[in-house]
Write a structure and sequence with these properties.
Layout: H1 3-16, H2 25-43, E1 47-50, E2 60-63, E3 75-83, E4 93-99, H3 100-106, E5 115-121, E6 131-133, E7 136-138, E8 142-147, H4 148-151, E9 160-166, H5 173-184
Parallel strand pairs: 3-5
Antiparallel strand pairs: 1-2, 2-3, 4-9, 5-8, 6-7
Pfam family, one: DUF4365
Protein name: DUF4365 domain-containing protein
Length: about 190
């Protein structure tokens, strides 16, 4: 089945599926992806600025309070997506399909703050998203990311556009700090 058909099927199933307590699965996935990102950011010593809406094509801003060579307190905006579709995970990347308008918002060249896309891959069954016991907190979820600058296209984008998030771009505390260092060490005018 083509990726766009899977995405449509995923959206239709999620819209119809309700978790216990009558909260739509899509809303739970959205909150779970933000919570996952918060835990990684906080453990790395960064903080999160929430957005009231994602009208600008991003969900949160990740902020560091460290002084780097170029900037103090670098930050980047992050558009979060969440899926349980293991089939999107390829040998060297995760393929994610975006609609034209959100893609164009995310990859605008005139962004003041750098933007990134993060896609969280979770288990299909909600009961498998998270496990807690005396040994700690465990999730089989993992997030892959890419900078909007690297996603940008020179040719016009169709109604749907597939982006590739390299598997080496696993969203971890170490990777997050490397992103901050890259932004913070930039020469004036670059990101």
């Amino acid at each position: 089945m083509p990726a766009e058909d899977l995405e449509d099927l995923d959206e239709a199933m999620n819209d119809a599926d309700l978790a216990e307590g009558q909260v739509p699965i899509t809303a739970l996935q959205e909150h779970f992806s933000v919570s996952f990102t918060r835990m990684i950011a906080y453990a790395a010593g960064c903080s999160i600025k929430p957005h009231e809406t994602d009208y600008e094509g991003v969900d949160i801003t990740v902020v560091s309070s460290t002084e780097y060579r170029g900037y103090y307190g670098p930050q980047f905006e992050l558009q979060l997506k969440c899926t349980y579709q293991e089939s999107l995970l390829k040998e060297d990347h995760m393929a994610w399909q975006m609609k034209k308008k959100p893609f164009e918002k995310l990859t605008r060249e005139k962004r003041y703050i750098p933007a990134y896309l993060g896609v969280l891959l979770i288990p299909r069954e909600q009961t498998s998203w998270l496990r807690t016991d005396e040994d700690g907190l465990f999730t089989r979820s993992r997030m892959f990311w890419e900078s909007a600058d690297n996603l940008r296209q020179t040719e016009p984008v169709a109604d749907r556009h597939t982006v590739h998030l390299p598997r080496r771009n696993l969203f971890t505390g170490d990777q997050l700090l490397k992103i901050m260092k890259r932004i913070g060490d930039a020469e004036e005018g670059s990101r």
